[in-house]
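Give me the fold.
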Amino acid sequence: MKRLIQCTALLLGLFSTAALCNTGLAFVHGTGKQTDALNDYWTKEFVNSVRAGLPNSALYTVVNCDFEQYMWDDGAAGCLAQQLTQFIDENAITNLKIITHSNGGNVVRWILSNPSSDGRYPLIINKTTHIIALAPSSGGTPLADAVIAGNSFEQTLGWILGFGNNAVKQQQVADMAYYNANWLYGTAGRPSLGKTFESVVGSDVDSAIWDGDSYCAGYQNQVALEFTQNWLDSCSDGFLNCSSQSAAGTVWFKDKQKTKGSEPLSHQQSRRACFNLDSLVRDRI
């Protein structure tokens, strides 16, 4: 209703109707080389539910890039910039909202923080108004350190991280601290991103075999993430500590504060339609 009132007011003010209300939505995946992120990363259930919150639900795009690379790499930030620019231009988008997950938030922050690095960045920055970062790895993760060090549970982490790719190296805790201090905006003591960047924080993992909630987004994923919690803080989603998820921008909410049944969101569940997360995001955009 608020969007309708705003658009109506603009029309009554005799502004041109062209693109005044063209709100677009981009889904930006996390670590991995994606060719069909709609089905393989997000699922149609989640994407279709969230985009229903747009004034025009057809104005959305699901990004497919090589996020096994460093965030500034052409396959990562370059690919993201190209796909967002094309989406903006082809649809006359004037108000771009972005949903990211995990390391996708770092790639988005790279673009917002380095406007002079690529000729496509200023347009994207100008059009972007709101980023919802689902379980962003803004402060890195000790699990990346463990994978690079060749820790014994590397095989368990393979389905989440891959094996020693540049994106994993980038998410080592000390590396992300360096990038946050020198190249990225939005963390404590650094310039603001200039855009709303709000995170959803996952705080725990449930994998009890008798609990139906443990099966949302795949029971085997919950078991693996609960195992990796042994290398993380007590407040974590099985991949990221809560402190990492909260390191950039502002916290919108910590899972149990808003989820159905006050359920925690594991790192896998925070990109799926689990415990009304999709409806919360839909209403937020």
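Residues 8-19 have pLDDT under 50 and may be disordered.
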